Amino acid sequence: MTKFAEVLRKVHEMEPRVQCITNFVTVNDCANIILAAGGTPSMADHIDEVAEALSCVQALVCNMGAIALTDSMIVGGKEANRRKIPVVLDPVAVGGTQLRRDAAKRLLEEVHFTAIRGNASEIRYLAGQQTTGAGVDVSDLDAITEENLPEAQEMIKNLAKSLGTVIAVSGVIDLVSDGERTMVLRNGCATMSRITGSGCMLTSMIGAFVGAAAEDPFTATCAAMAAMGIAGEIAEKKRIKNGTGNATFRTDLIDAVFNLTEEELTKGARYEIF
Amino acid sequence: MTKFAEVLRKVHEMEPRVQCITNFVTVNDCANIILAAGGTPSMADHIDEVAEALSCVQALVCNMGAIALTDSMIVGGKEANRRKIPVVLDPVAVGGTQLRRDAAKRLLEEVHFTAIRGNASEIRYLAGQQTTGAGVDVSDLDAITEENLPEAQEMIKNLAKSLGTVIAVSGVIDLVSDGERTMVLRNGCATMSRITGSGCMLTSMIGAFVGAAAEDPFTATCAAMAAMGIAGEIAEKKRIKNGTGNATFRTDLIDAVFNLTEEELTKGARYEIF
Amino acid sequence: MTKFAEVLRKVHEMEPRVQCITNFVTVNDCANIILAAGGTPSMADHIDEVAEALSCVQALVCNMGAIALTDSMIVGGKEANRRKIPVVLDPVAVGGTQLRRDAAKRLLEEVHFTAIRGNASEIRYLAGQQTTGAGVDVSDLDAITEENLPEAQEMIKNLAKSLGTVIAVSGVIDLVSDGERTMVLRNGCATMSRITGSGCMLTSMIGAFVGAAAEDPFTATCAAMAAMGIAGEIAEKKRIKNGTGNATFRTDLIDAVFNLTEEELTKGARYEIF
Predict the structure, then answer these.
(1) Is A23 left (phi over 0), alpha (psi -120 to 50) or beta?
(2) Cα(C238)–Cα(C228) distance, rounded to whole angstroms?
């Protein structure tokens, strides 16, 4: 059994509870994909209960789409740190507005994150690069390509080292680094960018995987990235075969996570490690 | 025609408007299942309009998942009481945090509820029992089983009597009591706990059924529980046959409510009354 | 190529970014239908970033379902006016409560809208007529029928002229006017009123279409209305054929927008212009 399959087995066995402070656009999909993966979602995000609710969870996900809840993320994140519960950050559109830049600064100062997953524009912004991405979508100029792959690997490795966290970039090419190891993953499909929430769902999955395999967050994050990419490929095959569209694709994507076996994950994952 | 079928006919004929103060995780599903059942949803929840909006509704649903809107629930609930409009409570995760315990106390003191539907952990908490359920999911220790069924029936009967309301517990075994009659229902399937919102949707359905059959909220609640369970069984058959997952199951569940006939409800309902 | 097909081509080519200040009930569907149409959604609605986020969008949609965010709509709408970005209003349930009547008054005083889309009750209210519609659904007494069509055409033409905007009414019969031209459209199906969000989705689509064809908002709005109606017909055919319900219909509706071709739009649109 590969390490990815081991992580998936742990998720299925532990059924980790994942608390999400997340945005209203994609919250239902995030909850359903956590359930599909075998976890249990909790969407308690009120500042007066966010810390108390952590008493029975295995991971906390902070999604900056819920920008009005930054204070809840800080209170929850600090309490999770105190309890040694992994915390995952999705820095949605972080470079896009001053409000988000300020929120990210506060979050990174006050909370230690186990993993941070964003698109290339978001992660480049966190690495201090000039970025052109606006809002939730990656800019073409920022995207990770075969050409800039060595530079991007260096960038996320340094960012991971400096923040002491796992950094994950999702896109046509995915990258994950913990500052020592760096993995390049090549699963997924283009239709994932034609639904809302594929990034948010992936971050929620990382929460479930890191929650179940807290001893190795790098491998857990890579496994979640691979699982999501393979699910996307399965859903894309159906979409092409049946002539359906992005709404059915979304449903099939979550279904594919629901039905994903350890064997499929092992066979389907396409990655190199550096 | 059975009494359940009569209730369903009333829902189809009256097309009750159901106002929901509910949480952002499952609000879309709640609206769509009310529409599937034949009702009309209204999600007006702002404290400055929640009472005024009641002028043309047949039922109000207060879902404690929207914990930040407790004040709206109290304002709306009191006005609904004044207007003799049925009010249904979903005490989401009520025992989980102090914020929720306090909110439930206020709600039960200030509003009279026609029906309260929760999982076994939530209802046991309201009955003053020690509970182990954390968050939105029932704890295995709290769940209603064949073994503890007599105790559970007694518990909800007493709670119903003391609060002067219909109490409904959904789970593998469903229980409904109005303090006099108690019904045990055995429809449903395990996949219902692998989607978010099956509880919230059921409570919204109870709103529609109680709104259309306000003269007998006990039977209306039982009919909604049976309808939801049968819809779950129909969706589960499709899931197994087609090898789909929880996302398609959610869609099929709402579809099954949309297509549910009086005859199917009569034939499919499995229940005993005490 | 018809003018409608030209608009659709522009949407596909430009991939307009549409910023929505919209309600939590249907926000996910609104985002997915914008993506289906070929645009990119941005749901930035926080008052502290709503203006800044406009720097890279082609249209702003203000949906009064998000009644608590009226201030964000005004700040964003004024900035969009300054930047000459089209702004589309969905006056959800505008006549239903004082809160909404006041919000609409402020919005219409402070923001110039390129297009306003509502149901007949909502638009009649804006036109100063007595209406009976309560909440989000059109009243039967307000609905546009073959009988009252001449009166309704006159009403929306005058409203469009007085507000200097495109007015669109959706229903069994759709009407669009810019104060000079008036179009009657007859696409769609009854099941569209059995899902939540068909109106919100349509308004979001208008945002994408008006964003991509800002030089002719009247034709862009008509094209979006026709596209949505045709998508509804495609989804309805599937629903009848497969015996599915409103949840599958919603998925198929978005899929149909995803797959809608210029040819289908040209052939399927049923309209008269006056």
Answers:
(1) beta
(2) 16
Residue A73 is encoded by which pair of tokens?
A: 């993320």
SS3 labels along A51-119? CHHHHHCCEEEEECCCHHHHHHHHHHHHHHHHHCCCEEEECCCCCCCHHHHHHHHHHHHHCCCCEEEEC
Within chain C, strands assigned E span 17-21, 40-42, 59-63, 87-90, 115-118, 166-169, 174-177, 182-185, 271-273
Measuring CA to CA, how many Å separate B57 from each of B7, B27, B44, B85?
18, 18, 11, 8
Identify the bridge partners of residue B20 per DSSP, sorted by sequence position.
B61
Query: Do residue B250 and residue C250 have CB atoms under 8 angstroms apart?
Result: no
The secondary structure of B26-42 as a DSSP string is THHHHHHHHHHHT-EEE
Amino acid identity for residue A96 in this structure? G
| Mean pLDDT (chain A, rounded) | 96
For A252, the enclosing helix (H) or strand (E) is helix A246-259
Whether residue C140 has pLDDT greater than 80: no
Closest residue of chain B to C65, computed from CA coordinates? B44
Give CA–CA dist B167/B119, Å, rounded.
11
pTM across the whole model? 0.97
Strands A166-169 and B115-118: unpaired
Coil vs helix vs strand at C217:
helix
Query: What letter represents residue B127's amino acid?
Result: A
Mean pLDDT over the full length of chain C: 96
Strands B182-185, B174-177: pairing kind? antiparallel
pLDDT band at B137 (very low <50, low <70, confident <90, very high): low
Smallest Cβ–Cβ distance between B26 and the set A17, A28, A256 belongs to A28
What the block records as the tokens of A109 is: 């100062």
State the virtual CA torsion across C39, C45, C48, C50 in degrees, nearest 10: 30
From the centroid of its chain, how far is CA A113? 12
Q: In this model, does residue C134 exceed pLDDT 70?
A: no
Q: What is the pLDDT of residues B207-234, one digit of tens each?
A: 999 999 999 999 999 999 999 999 999 9
Judge: B136–A49 Cβ closer than 8 Å, yes or no: no
Indicate the residue of B46, B52, B258 with minimum beta-carbon distance to C67: B46
Please provide the DSSP assignment of B124-171 as one string. Answer: HHHTT------TTS--TTTS--TTTHHHHHHHHHHHHHHHTSEEEE-S
Buried b (16+ CB within 10 A) or exposed e, A170-199: bbbbbbbbbbeebbbbebbbebbbbbbbbb
C39 CA: distance to closest CA in chain B (Å): 22
Tokens of B177: 């009591």
B117 is in an annotated binding site: yes
Tens-place pLDDT, residues A142-201: 899 999 999 999 999 999 999 999 999 999 999 999 999 999 999 999 999 999 999 999
Name the residue type at position A89.
L
**Selection from C104, C105, C115, C130 nearest residue C80 by Cα:** C115
State the Cα–Cα distance between residues C10 and A229, nearest whole angstrom.
Answer: 31
Q: Distance between CA atoms of A274 and C266, rounded to whole angstroms?
A: 53
Structure token digits, residue C249:
């219909």
**8 A C-beta contact, residue A139 and residue A127:** no
Q: Map out the domains of chain C with their CATH numbers.
A: 3-273 (3.40.1190.20)
CA distance B58 to chain A (A): 27
Q: What is the pLDDT of residues C66-103, one digit of tens each?
A: 999 999 999 999 999 999 999 999 999 999 999 999 99
Flag whether residue B171 sits within 8 Å of chain A, measured between CB atoms: no
Name, in order, each residue with C-beta under 8 angstroms of A212's C-beta and a sequence gap of 6 or more: A7, A10, A11, A13, A14, A16, A39, A58, A220
